[in-house]
Design goal:
249 residues, alpha+beta, Creatine Amidinohydrolase, four-stranded antiparallel β-sheet, 27% strand, globular, binds 2-amino-4-trifluoromethylsulfanyl-butyric acid, binds cobalt (II) ion
């Protein structure tokens, strides 16, 4: 799983560097598919329930599952990039949201808070914790900044299938759901809106958008539960992790 997830991390690292005004999400999709196949892996999303691409690219008020297209990214956009791969029977899955050129200070704050919320969720991913402790930490951080957590999509167990039990909601009270045990691997993926939490799915059957049109961000890591604490299998070498100190409870 570490090998599968490192392919995802490397692909996202390359995509992040490519993002600039004028680049299309179809260009990004072609790049990720080429990189994944060169690495000897298979794109996990292509063909999954009929999804047509290797990348999910969700721009501005698109929340998740945006389909790559010839649309050019423009300065001021934010774009969520979500990549999954299958390598020798095991899945990897990760996402990040990138600013295109200069974006509004509100958009910058949305990206920062969503990434921080993911890190607070990861910090809960320890032997003996309960699944809902993750979502609780995420929701507290997001709502403390006046943003909202999407309810319709959740994180998930991951392994020999892309989506395994348990579901990992990004909200909830502490102390519910399965207890985390050594060797479990979870994809934790907060989706955060500036405005209201409600989302709609467009007529393409995939693209989820905020109902109120507000901006939305998405960050995801695949995390193994180990006796030494959370092991983030999709951590990027050049990742600039937001540092989070102990979360107030
Ligand atoms: N990271 C997302 C998830 O885990 C992406 C799935 S896209 C799909 O659900 F096309 F595969 F559905
Ligand atoms: Co996922």
């Amino acid at each position: 799983m570490r090998a599968a997830n490192q392919i995802v991390a490397d692909a996202l690292d390359e995509l992040r560097a490519m993002v600039s005004p004028g680049v299309t999400t179809a260009d990004l999709d072609a790049t990720v598919e080429a990189r994944v196949r060169e690495a000897g892996a298979t794109p996990a999303f292509k063909g999954y329930r009929g999804y047509p691409a290797s990348l999910c690219a969700s721009i501005n008020h698109e929340v998740v599952h945006g389909i790559p297209s010839p649309r050019k990214l423009a300065t001021g956009d934010i774009v969520s990039l979500d990549v999954g791969v299958l390598l020798e029977g095991y899945y990897g899955d990760s996402a990040l949201t990138v600013a295109v050129g200069t974006v509004s200070s509100e958009a910058q704050e949305l990206l920062r808070v969503t990434q921080e919320a993911l890190e607070f969720g990861i910090a809960q991913t320890c032997v003996g914790a309960r699944v809902s402790d993750i979502g609780h930490a995420i929701q507290c951080h997001v709502e403390a900044h006046g943003f909202s957590v999407v309810r319709e999509f959740v994180g998930h167990g991951i392994g020999t299938k892309l989506h395994e039990e348990p579901q990992v909601p990004n909200y909830g009270e502490r102390g519910h759901g399965p207890r985390l045990a050594e060797g479990m691997v979870l994809a934790i993926e907060p989706m955060v809106n500036i405005g209201e939490p409600a989302v709609d799915v467009l007529d393409d059957g995939w693209t989820a958008v905020t109902r109120d049109g507000s901006l939305s961000a998405h960050f995801e890591h695949t995390v193994a539960v180990t006796s030494a604490g959370p092991d983030v299998l999709t951590r990027q070498l050049r990742d600039v992790p937001v540092s989070v100190s102990a979360q107030a409870s």
